[in-house]
Specification:
Residues 1-33 are annotated as: Disordered. Residues 22-31 have a biased composition (Acidic residues). The structure is a single chain. By secondary structure, the chain is mostly helical. Helix content is 39%, strand content 0%. It contains six helices and no strands. It has helices at residues 13-16, 32-37, 40-43, 63-71, 75-84, 97-105. It is globular.
Length: 108
């Protein structure tokens, strides 16, 4: 006995009327290019240290985190990531959130 194949209507027809954004079908989170874009995180020195140093309490010292960033080979990728993703907390690419805001405004 063969199963009966019938085309079922969408379970939520109202959603089928909403067009998918451009490039939606092309996005693959397991794509090699997507993975390569974030491989820098595996090479970052901060990945091997205490994350609390990079997310200090308000008014806490950022000196230790910035010292680590100075020696990091992926510092520029880290800063680019933070700026592109509007990271609001922590030290990224050697800059605090306040310093990144100033950089975006062209003050630094």
């Amino acid at each position: 006995m063969q199963p009966i194949e019938a085309e079922l209507p969408p379970s939520r027809p109202h959603l089928s009327l909403v067009p998918e954004p451009d490039g939606y079908d092309d996005f693959d989170p397991f794509d090699a290019e997507t993975a390569t874009n974030e491989e820098w995180q595996d090479r970052a020195l901060c990945a091997q240290t205490d994350p609390e140093a990079f997310f200090p309490e308000k008014g806490g010292s950022t000196r230790e985190a910035k010292k680590i960033c100075q020696r990091c080979s992926v510092r520029s990728e880290c800063l680019e990531y933070a700026l592109a993703h509007d990271e609001r907390f922590g030290i990224w690419g050697g800059l605090s959130e306040r310093e990144r805001r100033r950089l975006k405004r062209g003050i630094i």
